[in-house]
Amino acid sequence: MTDAADLVAHAHDTRIVVVGGGVAGLVAALECAKVGMQVTVLEASDRLGGVVRSAEVDGVSVDVGAESFATRGGTVAALVTELGLQHAIVAPDAAGAWVAGLPGGAAAPLPAGGILGIPANPFSDDVRRVIGWRGAWRAYLDRLRPPLTIGHERSLGALVRRRMGQTVLDRLVAPVTTGVYSARPDDIDVDLAAPGLNNALTRTGSLQGAVGQLRGGRAVVPGQAVQGLDGGMTRLVDALVERLTDLGVELRVGTPAREIVRDGDAWAVVVDPAAGDGSPAAPAAADGATPASGERVPAHAVIVATPEAQARHLLAPVSSLDPGSVTAPVVEIVTLVVDAPELDVAPRGTGVLTVPGSHTAKALTHATAKWQWLREATPHHILRVSFGAQGEAPATEALDDDAAAALALSEAAALLGVPLQPSQLRASHRERYVQSQPAAVIGRASVAAAGRAAVHAVPGLAVVGAWLSGTGLAQVVPDAIAEAERVRREALWGGSAATD
Q1: Strands 15-19 and 301-304
Q2: CB 380, CB 338: distance < 8 Å
Q3: Cα(98)–Cα(145) distance, rounded to whole angstroms?
Q4: Helix (H), strand (E) at residue 386
Q5: What pTM did the predictor assign?
Q6: DSSP readout, 308-371?
C-alpha cells in the first residue's frame, strides 16, 4: 500500500521543467501542477500560447493564429470547462465555406455531407455545381469499379483520382487538404486522415458508398465541426496561465533553453537569461562544455514542448532521437479590417478555400461573418487571408507589410467576388508561423512513433506538441494530457500503477 502522505510529499518534492509555452506545454504543465508537483515553464519568445495568439487590429482584439478547435473527441471542450470557460464556447455561423478557382473564375459553396471533400453523391446539385456534369459522370464510374479486396490504397490523392477522377480531386479534395492540412492530397495517408474509409469502400463496393456509410446520412456543412470562444481563442491561454499561476507554476518567457544535461540522477535545462530579449542563445563551447553564463534549471523530469526542429536539437544529445533535418509549411496570415458594406450579406459564406494554383492565397476566412461575437465588436469586416502551404513559400514572404496587405486585399476581392479598393482598408496585421508537418502525411506516423520511442526509452524525458500528435488543439491537448500522465506516473511510482 502506498501511504497518501508520502505521495503528497513526494509530489511536492518532484520538480518538472517544461520547455515551451505553447498550448501543449501549458496543458502538460497543468497536469503536473494540479497533483502538487513543482513546475517551471521556459518559453523562448516573449509570450505564451504558441500558435494561439491575438493582436489588436483597428481597436479590436482578433485571433491571428488558431481561431477555433475541432469538436471531435470532446477533450478541448472538457479542458475549457475545467478552466471555467464553458459559457464562452460558441459555434460558427451556419453559412458554411465556399470553393473558388472553378472554371471561368467561378466559385460555389462546398457541398455538405462529404469526407475531406469526397462526395457521397456526385449528382447532388451542390456537388455537380462544383464538378460539372462531366465530373459527376466520371465520379459515378466509381460505382462500377471493383473495390480492392486485398490491401488498400494509402494515398488519398491516388485513391480519389482512381475511383472518382481528377475533377473531384482538384475541385473538392485538394482545396480541403490544402486549406486544412497545408498538404497535397497525394501526400495524405487515407487511414490517418479518414479512418475506416478504405474498409468501408471494401464493404460497400464504392468510394461514394463508403462516404455515405461513414457519414450515416448526416449532411455535415463544411467548417461546422469546430467551435470557438467568445472573445477569441487566447482566452484559453489566459485561463491556463491564470490556473497555472494559482498553482504556483513558475512561468518564464524570453528564456530559451540551450540544452538538456544530466545532473546526477536527475536533469538540468541550461538556459541563457541574456537571450531574453529575443536574440539567439549563446552556443555551447567547442568541447561540449556549458558556458559559464548558462543558468541550470534543475528537474527530476523534463517535458519538451517546442516545435520539431528545436525539440530534436534539445533531445538528440540525451536520447537516440535523430536530430534530422526538419521541413515544415510556413504560413502567413494577413488580417484585414475593411469598410465594405457590400460584404454585409456574406457573399461567400464564412470563408473560401481555393483550387490549388488558381489563386495566390490558399484560403480566406470572413471572420465577422463566421463569429457573432466578432461581428458585434466592430461595424466593419474582418478578413483573414492565408498564404503558404507544404512545399510552397508564402507569396507574401518577400514583401513588406504594406505590400503584403495590398496583395491580401486584392486576393480577398477575388475570392469574395466583391471589388475592394485600397481606400476601404482601415488596418491590417501580418502574422507568420511555422506549422508542424501534418500527422496525416504519408510516413509521418512512423516518424512520430520513432521519436516518441526514442524519448520514452530515457527515464525522466518526455515530448509533446503538434509534430507528434498532429496539428490542431483536438489532437494536441489529449496527447499532452496523456504524456504528462506518463511523466507523473513515472515520477511518483517509477512507471508502475499505484496499488491499494
Answers
A1: parallel
A2: yes
A3: 30
A4: strand 381-387
A5: 0.90
A6: HHHHHHHHGGGSS---------EEEEEEEEE--GGGTT-TTTTEEEE-TTS-SSSEEEEHHHH-
Rounded to a whole number, what is the distance in angstroms from the first to the last CA of the chain? 5
Contact by Cβ (8 Å): 139, 165: yes
Q: Is 182 left (phi over 0), alpha (psi -120 to 50) or beta?
A: left
Q: DSSP class of residue 189?
A: B
Number of H helices, E strands in the chain: 18, 20
DSSP letter at 255 equals: -
DSSP letter at 267 equals: E
CA-nearest of 190, 70, 89, 63 to 472 is: 70
Helices of type H across 340-472:
367-370, 372-377, 401-416, 444-456, 466-469
Per-residue pLDDT of the chain (500 residues; tens, 9 = 90+): 457 777 778 788 899 999 999 999 999 999 999 999 999 999 999 999 999 999 999 999 999 999 999 998 999 999 999 999 999 999 999 998 999 999 999 999 999 888 999 999 999 999 999 999 999 999 999 998 887 655 578 899 999 999 999 999 999 999 999 887 778 999 999 988 888 998 899 889 999 999 999 987 665 555 568 999 999 999 999 999 999 999 999 999 999 999 999 998 899 999 986 544 444 444 443 334 344 457 999 999 999 999 999 999 999 999 999 887 777 778 999 999 999 999 999 999 999 999 999 999 999 999 999 999 999 999 999 999 999 987 788 999 999 999 999 999 999 999 999 999 999 999 999 999 887 777 788 888 898 899 999 999 999 999 999 999 988 999 999 999 999 999 999 988 775 444 33
Using left for φ > 0, alpha for ψ between -120 and 50, and beta otherwise, residue 470 falls in left
Q: How far apart are CA 29 and CA 19, in angstroms?
A: 10
Distance in angstroms (rounded) separating the CA atoms of residues 40 and 302: 10
DSSP 8-state class, residue 424: G
